[in-house]
Model the fold of this input.
Amino acid sequence: MELYTPVLVLALIAAAFAVGSVIMSAFVGPSRYNRARLDSYECGIEPTPQPVGGGRFPVKYYITAMLFIVFDIEIIFLYPWAVQFDSLKLFGLVEMVIFIATVFVAYAYVWRRGGLEWD
Done:
C-alpha cells in the first residue's frame, strides 16, 4: 500500500482541485446574463437561419475528418518502428515498406477521387 500512497494523494488533490474550481466559479463568476451573452459565438458573422431540426453538414466534412483520423493513426505506427529500427533489421524494413506502400495507395486513391479538395 505504501507504493500507492503518492498516487492516491495526487488523485485526491486533482479531484479536490476539479471540484473546488467548479464550486468557486459559481461564487466568483458573474451571474447577470443578457441576450448577447446567451447567443452563440460566431466571430462577428451574423448566423444564417437554420431549419428547426438543425442544418446539415456536407458529407465532405465528415470524409475529411475520417481521412485525418486514418492518416494520423497510420503515421503513429511509424514511431515505434523508428525507435526499434536497429533491432528489427531487414524484416522490419520490409514490413514498413509494405505498410507505407498501403498508406500511399490509400492516399493516391483519396487524392484521385478529389477527397483533398476544399471547393
User: Anything to note?
Assistant: Residues 49 and 55 are 9 Å apart (CA to CA).
